[in-house]
Amino acid sequence: MEIILKQDVQTLGHKDDLVKVKDGYARNYLIPQGFAVSATPSARKVHAENMRQRAHKEEKLRNDATAAAKKLENILLKVGAKTSTTGKIFGSVNTIQLAEALVEKGYTVDRKNITIYDADNIKEVGSFKAKVKLYRDITVDIQFEVVSE
Known about the structure:
Blueprint lengths: L1 E4 L12 E3 L2 H8 L5 E3 L2 H33 L2 E6 L13 H11 L8 E3 L9 E8 L5 E10 L1
Parallel strand pairs: 4-7
Antiparallel strand pairs: 1-2, 1-3, 5-6, 6-7
């Protein structure tokens, strides 16, 4: 069954994508939850018109995200954490702390769009990497350093 997504679905696609899924998944989950609508001929026409009108706005968003990605490539964030005398971290470093550090630098990024590489292995003070998703397919790797408070 073909459906049109009304919002982003993590493993399926982005808003306004035309996706083919199994009938039961569409009828029992996606459509009742309001994540999608059935891709009937009339819904396809409406979708095509919406996509035509949205193309200009999307191009501007993509250009803004590309410009922000170029600025973020060279940024180094410092995240403070409580540590022992040997440099071991008490607790963990999470995406909320990275999002706050980005806001301090002047970039607004939702914490859900930040992924820390090897988040389970951040146990000491040091330098690490994270991936920031700025737009659908525009991501940038940023460096962050965990320092003792």
